[in-house]
Amino acid sequence: MPHSDDVFIVGIGQTALGELWDQGLRDLGVQALQSAIQDAQGLMPQALYVANMLGASASRQANLGALICDQIGLAGQAEALTVEAAEASGGVALQLAANAIRAGSADVVAVLGIEKVTDLVGSDLDAFMAQSLDADFETEIGMNTNSQAALLLQRYLHENAFPREALAGFPMIAHANAVNNPLAMFRRAINAEAYAKAAMVEAPLNFYDVAPLADGAAALILTRGSHLPEALREKAVRLAGSAVVASRLALHDRPDPLFFDSAAVSAQRALDKAGVNLATLDFFEYSDYTTLHAMLSLEAIAAAPRGQAWKLASDGSLALDGNLPVATMGGNKARGFTLGASGVFQALEACLQLRGAAGANQIPNAHVCMVQSLAGNASLAATHVLTRFAS
């Protein structure tokens, strides 16, 4: 029997990802949320947390909670608000939703991640994306997340003295896994030769080192253990532990820019709350919006020693049949990077694995996983440990 204080994800829904020019924020949000409610057998949310980064700027639409509630018939009935924590918005919204349930504010809560990056293109979009950095000391001089990641990767390569070609394994794993994700933006495998020939985006980051921006929406329906219907127990996924931790915003203020301390602390706190450890995890959905982020995330959770994460991409450890599979449905790199919505996509894909519904990408007997979302260059990290209902 579930404990009355346990929080479960009982409904999931998502849209396809890509350049969805003919759909707006409300179209995507309604589609994903209605799918999640249907998956939860009609369980209606009493509160809605909308995770989004660019709505008020790129899409000129704030107050997304009210917008979506109105569109799905919950106007005048549900609490609703927008959660903005840059690229980690989805992970933070999930924790807020769980906290609302545990506090007794609601029995059923929806989390909706939604982003429409194609509402802007070119330099305007770049400027809005850079808002997750320090406006006075970083964006003011032309920095953005990719340029910062490139500088960090250059330093990482220098300190650890290994060939840049060894990084190819990270996007290769993501793209191989996306082949079997019918909603992914890029469903085509790549090889080391393609990686080597790819054009530079921000040297030494090339085209395959940087996640492609995508439109899309994903939704989750959460409920408490005492409210969990018998009919939903087979597919229920327990939110066993969560933690959100902030670091210093600006890179130049960090004592060690090559260590994501927010990711390390939030991961350990989430594992401790769940009563498990790293060895217990069956897979890890990391925040791979560049190859640099993938490596430093693995080192932050102690899956690899400092300066050694690059080895995991070629020794089979991160593959679907490895010790710690990652990006199991393509990750941000091949599924598509929906910025503030990405954390909800990560949690949804983790639920597919834990339900045994990941198709050709299914990890056998998956019981426990960790999902981590990062804002900026790990200025904030939101980490969740999810388990199967029976675990």
Order of helices and strands: EHEHEHEHHHHEEEEHEHHHEE
- Mind describing the biggest β-sheet? 9 strands, mixed
Strand elements, count: 11
Structural class by helix and strand composition: alpha/beta
Gap between N and C termini = 12 Å
As a whole number of angstroms, the C-alpha radius of gyration is 19 Å
Query: Tell me, what's the shape?
Result: globular
Quaternary status: single chain
Give an overview of the whole structure.
- It is a single chain.
- Helix 3 (89-102) crosses helix 11 (342-355).
- The chain has helices at residues 25-39, 64-71, 89-102, 123-129, 145-160, 169-178, 192-197, 261-274, 291-300, 331-335, 342-355, and strands at residues 7-14, 47-51, 79-83, 108-115, 200-202, 205-206, 216-224, 237-246, 283-285, 368-375, 380-388.
- It has a nine-stranded mixed β-sheet with strand order 3-2-4-7-1-8-11-10-9, with helices on both faces. Strands 5-6 form a two-stranded antiparallel ribbon.
- Helix 2 (64-71) links the parallel strand 2 (47-51) and strand 3 (79-83).
- The N and C termini lie close together (12 Å).
- The mean pLDDT is 95.
- With 391 residues, the chain is α/β, with parallel strands linked by helices.
- It is built from eleven helices and eleven strands.
Summarize the structure.
This protein has 391 residues and is of the alpha/beta class. The protein is 30% helix and 18% strand.
Question: Top keywords for this entry?
Answer:
two-stranded antiparallel sheet; 30% helix; single chain; 9-stranded mixed β-sheet; 391 residues; alpha/beta
